[in-house]
Design brief:
It is a single chain. By secondary structure, the protein is an all-alpha fold. It contains 8 helices and no strands. The longest helix is centred in the first third of the chain and has 35 residues.
């Protein structure tokens, strides 16, 4: 950037990139803490009684947010080299898998789903849109995992999927009720 635009423009662009990275990090942290909170609210996350707590003053899931912050810091310290790039790549692989799995599941059960009058409906475009979404997810996943530099991010994702699978199997074995029932109306402000 310095060679093409000069030092002033380089600094300006780097400030913009810094703000963009900070904003993207906040979005990821917010989304992850929301997922932890939602799973905890439904008693489907380890330490769910703590992680579902919401601050009455700020009305935010503070323990879930702190957990996500700590996991990010630990991964940044534990990963050698370009840890940030590896975490960013891993954080794009996992959603591609989740979206692809969601679309695949939808395609498998779509005929059994009830249609409500007045609800959003793609009509005859439903199947083509769903198939295109699945193709897009598969292509995105291929682009993300194909480069040799993606080995560490892929290992992070595999580790997360294995940990989630083990937890799911534990829920199936020891707390099946958490998977088979809706939590109902839970007071998240109650500690």
């Amino acid at each position: 950037m310095r060679d093409r635009f000069g030092p002033a423009m380089e600094r300006t662009l780097l400030v913009g990139v810094s703000f963009a990275f900070f904003g993207a990090g906040m979005v990821v942290m917010t989304a992850c803490s929301r997922i932890v909170f939602a799973m905890s609210r439904d008693a489907r996350f380890p330490a769910h009684r703590l992680m579902r707590r919401v601050s009455p003053r700020t009305r935010t899931p503070v323990p879930a947010t702190v957990l996500i912050l700590l996991v990010g810091v630990v991964l940044m310290v534990a990963l050698p080299g370009a840890a940030l790039l590896k975490l960013i790549t891993a954080s794009t692989i996992l959603p591609a898998i989740i979206y692809g799995a969601t679309v695949t599941r939808y395609l498998a059960v779509r005929r059994r789903l009830a249609r409500r009058k007045g609800a959003f409906d793609l009509g005859r475009f439903e199947l083509p849109v769903a198939v295109c979404a699945l193709v897009w997810s598969v292509l995105s996943l291929f682009v993300l995992v194909a480069p040799p530099e993606a080995l560490v991010p892929v290992l992070i994702v595999v580790g997360l999927l294995l940990a989630g699978g083990v937890f799911f199997l534990c829920l199936l074995r020891f707390d099946r009720e958490a998977l088979e029932t809706e939590p109902g109306d839970l007071d998240v402000f109650q500690h």
